[in-house]
Every structure is written in C-alpha cells, then in structure tokens.
Design goal:
Helix content is 40%, strand content 23%. With 136 residues, it is of the alpha/beta class. The chain has one domain: Rossmann fold, CATH 3.40.50. A 5-stranded parallel beta sheet has the order 2-1-3-4-5, sandwiched between helices. It holds the Pfam family Response_reg.
Length: 136
Amino acid sequence: MKTESIKNVLIVDDEPAIRVFQKVLLRRSKFDIGHIYEAGNGIDAIDIMSRNRIDLILTDINMPVMNGIEFLNIIHNHQQFRDVPTVAVTTERGEQLLNMLAFWGHGYVNKPLRLGVLEQQISKFYGINNEYHLHG
C-alpha cells in the first residue's frame, strides 16, 4: 500500500542507466510517485526546476557541467528551491560532504542504491510524523 503522495520528483544524474534504475526504485517504493523528471547535470536540473514545481530531488554528486555540490549550493541559496527535500545519491563518503549535506538539511544514500535505504531517507521528509509535508 502506498503511504504518501509525492507529485513531482527530479532525478539528477549523468548516467542514463542510473536514472532508469532510480525511476524503477521510486515506482516500487511505498510512496505514490507522480511525474518523474530527469536531468543529466545541475544546469539542466535548475532549468527543469524553474519551469516545474518539484517535490523531491535525488541528485548525484559527481557529474560533468555542474556537479552535485554546485547544484546543491544553488538550490540552497535560492528562495524558491531551498525547501525542496533533497537526497544526494553518491559514492562519496567524505566527512566534509556529509557535514555539508546535514547542515543544509539534505539526506544522502550511498551507491549502489537500495530500495529500503532510499525509502528511509525519503521518509525523513514525507513520513507521518515529519515536519515537511507536501506544500500543495
């Protein structure tokens, strides 16, 4: 049974196969997922976000053109985007990165991505007892 509705999700990763895999996991998750947008880098993601309301972002950290750190920095400093729940999906495990993600209020999961771990991170934003609930 699907527990929570998340209307618009944005997956940001430079690897098309990874984006497909993440879409499959989201569709199999306990969440009722609406539309899934895809971007291959942070610049394309910002463009999508400027034209569409996004309710959840999954982003890679290591990408060309604009990497995940630059992307997260832009959305963190942009009034319209800063409150969008964001989960970094990464192979990086550095303490500095994890501290930055925690400071900005973002979740993170390590690659390879597993459904239970992803659901756990998303539940931090969309669970029954969580502060963040869908804004519209």
